[in-house]
Amino acid sequence: MQATEAAVFLLTLLPNVEELTLPAKLKLEPSESIDKLIDAIVCKARRPSSLPHDRPSLARCTTFGPAPLDGAKPFLALPCMRTVRTSSLAQNWSSKFGQALEVVSFPACYIDRVAIADFLKHTPRLRTLGYSHRSKDDREGPPLDWDICKFVTAIEREAGGHLMQLSITINELRGSILPGRASLRGFKRLQTLQFPLEFAAPKAPHGDCAHESSFTRDLVPASVSRLSLTSSGTDEHAKALDVMFRDFAAEKDAWLPAL
């Protein structure tokens, strides 16, 4: 604990730091003394100061991570914090965390739709979201399946009006992708979109032209100007691509004028 307190105390001496990365071995477990010190750092950083020689520590910090958010959530309340890269998502969010965030990346992470929705409720300025799914390490039971459709729907519901870049990929999947249907039409300002073909393949219609047209429009918002699809090369993925782009050349201007 003394080493942790010493490391946190060091954070009081960094007025010029713009990017903060905590050591992987630094465990910010609940502690009254550490919590008070971190809160004091954040509170002072948020307090206006007109004296050039009295710049608060971390007041200029704009980037956090890569590091777990467990125990480090208060740093997201720093006044200039804009970018976060983290491998976990802390619980019990409130309005004071994440209000200024613009870019968030979750590499090799497991987050369910409830947690991502709760997080996005408190990030009204978020423009870029990246999520790389990794199956939950549950050694006591079978691999958990992933309901990617409900996950994407949760993102669309909370951030569809302001998100401009969205990337969803699969880092490791030990279970299955649950069948379902999701529409991305609620993303009104999305410009860059990346998703795995696992998201499209289970829902791809075959032989129904009307459904094929609706299928493509549901998957790719009209505002998108950059599209990236990831695939492991299965037959289902090939069929999904065929359906999505069968009449693309002829109907691109009507479907995806920005692409």
CA radius of gyration is: 21 Å
Total of DSSP H or I helical runs spanning 4+ residues? 7
CATH class division of the domain at 102-255: Alpha Beta
Distance between the termini: 54 Å
Shape designation: globular
| Physical arrangement of strands within the biggest beta sheet | 1-2-3-4-5-6-7-8
CATH topology-level fold name of the domain at 102-255: Leucine-rich repeat, LRR (right-handed beta-alpha superhelix)
Poorly predicted spans: 204-211
What does the main sheet amount to?
Answer: 8 strands, parallel
Based on the coordinates given, report the CATH architecture of the domain at 102-255. Answer: Alpha-Beta Horseshoe
Which percent range fits the helix content? 25-40%
Structural class, by secondary structure, is alpha/beta
Describe the structure.
The protein has 259 residues and is of the alpha/beta class. The chain has a domain at 102-255: Leucine-rich repeat, LRR (right-handed beta-alpha superhelix) (Alpha-Beta Horseshoe), CATH 3.80.10. The protein is built from seven helices and eight strands. It has helices at 2-10, 32-46, 113-120, 148-159, 209-219, 235-245, 248-255, and strands at residues 19-20, 63-64, 83-85, 103-109, 128-134, 165-172, 192-196, 226-230. The chain has an eight-stranded parallel sheet with strand order 1-2-3-4-5-6-7-8, with no helix packed on it. The longest helix is centred in the N-terminal third of the chain and has 15 residues, at 32-46. The chain starts with a helix and ends with a helix.
